[in-house]
Amino acid sequence: MSDAIAGKQASVERVLRLGPVVAVVVVRELAHAVPLARALVAGGVKAVEVTLRTPVALDAIRAIAAEVEGVALGAGTLLAPRDFDAALAAGATFAVSPGSSPLLLDAADDSALPYLPGAATATEAMTLAERGYRWQKFFPAVPAGGVEYLKSLASPLPGIGFCATGGVSASATPAWLALPNVVAVGGSWLTPHDLVAAGNWPAIAALAREAAALR
Ligand SMILES: O=C[C@H](O)COP(=O)(O)O
Ligand SMILES: CC(=O)C(=O)O
């Protein structure tokens, strides 16, 4: 593994150890970005991944990076090599994607952004490990096989730690966190669309508080 990847992976590990849950966020209106991130941080969730799934996502990252203290701000849903430069320029401090591809991994090698790539099978996880990725996102966690599936990878692939994401809920989080190869989970349940649309930041802070206390 190159020293550069090892250093970036150490940064990924630090992000995943900030708390039990990474908030995965879809920002549809730019005006929601800052109060949403502030509500998550106020509730104790310090790792926030803004997915590049909406036209305002990069501006949302820019606004949060400029205005919100105490947040580890990631860009999610990176699908193309150019997304690394765009996410870094906007102020993201880590990058996430649902899977990976040779082109994305080459772009990650060339980028300063720490990268959390997705894997859903033993082969994908092993292929990423060959390129230096000890920290990976298990996605989509529940449809891909759930807790039992990931548990069965722990013994044969002891060097890989996962952030389980995709279909994970607050009530299921303790079972994921109990696995030896899970360091955190990710989820969008902290930011339901109706609460965001209504600007109900206290309710989102309460969901974040509940998530931050999960063990
Ligand atoms: O990171 C990806 C997902 O969109 C989060 O999954 P979820 O909405 O099932 O929590
Ligand atoms: C699903 C996922 O990993 C992402 O949107 O980044």
Automatic annotation (TrEMBL):
Name by which UniProt lists this protein: 2-dehydro-3-deoxy-phosphogluconate aldolase
UniProt entry keywords in alphabetical sequence: Carbohydrate metabolism, Lyase
Source species: Tahibacter soli
Catalysed reactions listed for this entry: 2-dehydro-3-deoxy-6-phospho-D-gluconate = D-glyceraldehyde 3-phosphate + pyruvate
UniProt keyword Lyase present: yes
NCBIfam families per the UniProt record, alphabetical: eda (TIGR01182)
Gene3D superfamilies: Aldolase class I (3.20.20.70)
InterPro entries reported for this sequence: Aldlse_KDPG_KHG, Aldolase_TIM, KDPG/KHG_AS_1
Associated pathway: Carbohydrate acid metabolism; 2-dehydro-3-deoxy-D-gluconate degradation; D-glyceraldehyde 3-phosphate and pyruvate from 2-dehydro-3-deoxy-D-gluconate: step 2/2
EC identifiers of the protein: 4.1.2.14
Subunit details: Homotrimer.
GO molecular function, one term: 2-dehydro-3-deoxy-phosphogluconate aldolase activity
Family indicated by similarity: Belongs to the KHG/KDPG aldolase family.
